[in-house]
Amino acid sequence: MLEIKKIISEETYPLHLQVLKTCNDYQYKYNADFEKETMHFGAFLSQENVGIVSLMENKHTYFKGKQIQLRGMAVLTKNQGQNVGSRLIESSIIESKKRKTTIIWCNVRDYSVTFYEKQGFKIKGGKFFIENVCNHYVMYLNLDEK
Ligand SMILES: CC(C)(COP(=O)(O)OP(=O)(O)OC[C@H]1O[C@@H](n2cnc3c(N)ncnc32)[C@H](O)[C@@H]1OP(=O)(O)O)[C@@H](O)C(=O)NCCC(=O)NCCS
């Protein structure tokens, strides 16, 4: 059975490296990792960490009100397509609502846009390129409309 648990920043690093890393100088450690408002979730199957996501209180100029940025969403390749990502988003929404957040937003890799759309996220603005990674879109979920 899949279990979603709070984890510490360093526990997210192995999946960052296995799933998200695209180049040798890929940046996966953020200063905000250790802010007291930052939270990291791990998805566990039989004690194996198969998915991660980080929630950071960070404002984007596109939006107004209280905001949370989702970062570093990753599911091990062998466990993709088993609803692990959806469960991580569900936990992120519950936590964000507890904090009276209006907007959850994230920078989404172009090939993962459909996943976020299926979770109710919408695109804001145009695509932008992150060097050594790929094209991205800002996507958001307005919790006041849910
Ligand atoms: C994107 C990712 C987090 C999704 O997690 P997941 O556990 O595979 O997703 P789920 O199984 O919960 O999928 C939920 C739905 O989204 C769809 N979906 C998932 N990933 C998709 C993708 N890349 N493209 C299109 N649809 C996708 C699933 O088919 C499923 O659809 P359904 O509800 O109609 O059956 C995961 O595939 C991943 O880690 N990918 C590589 C890293 C990455 O791109 N991270 C996001 C960076 S912005």
Structural summary, described in words:
- By secondary structure, the protein is an alpha+beta fold.
- The protein has a single domain, classed as Gcn5-related N-acetyltransferase (GNAT) (Aminopeptidase).
- Helices cover 23% and strands 38% of the residues.
- It contains three helices and seven strands, in the order βαβββαβαββ.
- The protein has helices at residues 9-20, 84-98, 113-118, and strands at 2-7, 39-45, 48-56, 67-75, 103-109, 122-130, 134-142.
- The chain has a seven-stranded mixed β-sheet, with helices on both faces.
- The chain starts with a strand and ends with a strand.
- The model has no long low-confidence stretch (mean pLDDT 97).
- Bound molecules: coenzyme A (COA).
- Residues 19-20, 73-75, 80-86, 108-109, 111-112, 114-115, 118 line the site of coenzyme A.
